[in-house]
Amino acid sequence: MSMFLDTAKIKVKAGNGGDGMVAFRREKYVPNGGPWGGDGGRGGNVIFVVDEGLRTLMDFRYNRHFKAQSGEKGMTKGMHGRGAEDLIVHVPQGTTVRDAETGKILTDLIENGQKFIVAHGGRGGRGNIRFATPKNPAPEISENGEPGQERELQLELKILADVGLVGFPSVGKSTLLSVITSAKPKIGAYHFTTIVPNLGMVRTQSGESFAVADLPGLIEGASQGVGLGTQFLRHIERTRVILHVIDMSASEGRNPYEDYLAINKELESYNLRLMERPQIIVANKMDMPDSAENLKTFKKKLVENYDEFDELPQIFPISSLTKQGLSMLLDATAELLAKTPEFLLYDESEMEEEAYYGFDEDAPAFDISRDDDAAWVLSGDKLEKLFVMTNFDREEAVMKFARQLRGMGVDEALRARGAKDGDLVRIGNFEFEFVD
After folding, report:
1. Which of 83, 157, 368, 421 is the 20 to 30 A CA-CA neighbour of 263?
2. Do 89 and 48 contact (CB within 8 A), yes or no?
């Protein structure tokens, strides 16, 4: 089984805030003691950190749930609970994080040490020391901690490479990578020897260097799932230059020019923007008998069928086995890289807007619906948050929640919808009777 994994779906849960405490001063010589319950601590965040030592998402194959610790509860003597430590999750460079529910991109992690909070911990609930007023100097009110953010994430690894090698199986991509870098890809005389992307560093004679990725061979129909499909083409999306490797000897009976058209069609079918990347055509296996004649025919067809407004790609005849023509190819690649800008992987429509963790002033505070049993159902982010943070073990806290609902206009809205005295009202699993 391959130890390379470039996609994973995981669940993350930030820590809940600690509950606030209800407590009172009871020292012998302190008259009119008053409240003394402290606040709960903050829940831990879930943070992704880029680790350049990781190469795959294999760590997420069996460990798919990540949960941060909750904050400590508030304590007596006005002491606050301790905030929980953040949960650090290491991911490889080039990891794209997407919200599995909305499909929006949260972040693209490409720099070593880069951090991103994927789930925010809840704040601690307030203790009764926070609710003291001149009218109520000894309140029996405290808040529960705020729930931590919970979400399902889709991780996608797109390896960082400046140059990508594409082409049919057995055209010599792995051999080329092995002779221009110190990478040791598996090489065999059969199709799909390469079943995972390989990465290597190239240093030219002039001292320039760049990273090259050898991708598993494409075949015609790959965009419809034939062969290995396009499952590894995501790794070419970060590249700035494509080296299109073609077996100019036609040793397997295929036509080099038709191979060239077929691979470009698969690239275009996968992602139209891949065609924006400049290509260099690598005419490989020029040490074979028919290669020179096939190259002449290839060039003729390329000129005949190329749009007059487009620039013809450069063609470099090479032999990976004899190392013929490699230095010129690498110099030209480095030169093209120097003048090719980075390509934007995602547009604004794919990115999630910067997260706002307060309440949206324009959003309705609550929503009213009717359940099958004729009960009125209240929902809405603001209302549900107030509900979760209310300590229903304390009568004063329940009365405070009722006043908050009234202040939000819930009573009036229910009355306008036809609610009558004694009707059942439901918030989550909590039920109470409507009093008109």
Report:
1. 157
2. yes
Taking the C-alpha atoms of residue 298 and residue 215, their distance in angstroms, rounded to an integer, is 24
pTM for the structure as a whole: 0.83
Give the bridge partners for 379, in sequence order: 367
Would you call 358 helix, strand, or coil by DSSP? Answer: coil
Phi-psi region of 395 (alpha: psi -120 to 50; beta: other; left: phi over 0): alpha
Task: DSSP for 58-126, please give it.
Answer: GGGTT--EEEPPPPPPP-STTPPPPPPPPEEEEE-TTEEEEETTT--EEEEE-STT-EEEEEPPPPPPP
Average pLDDT, the chain: 87
Q: Longest Cα pair distance anywhere in the chain, in angstroms? A: 106
Using pLDDT thresholds of 50, 70 and 90, give the confidence band for residue 129.
Answer: very high
First to last CA, the chain: 67
Q: Are 234 and 156 in contact (CB under 8 A)?
A: yes
The 3-state DSSP class for residue 69 equals coil
Residues in a beta bridge with 314: 280
**DSSP symbols for 378-399:** EE-HHHHHHHHTB-TTSHHHHH
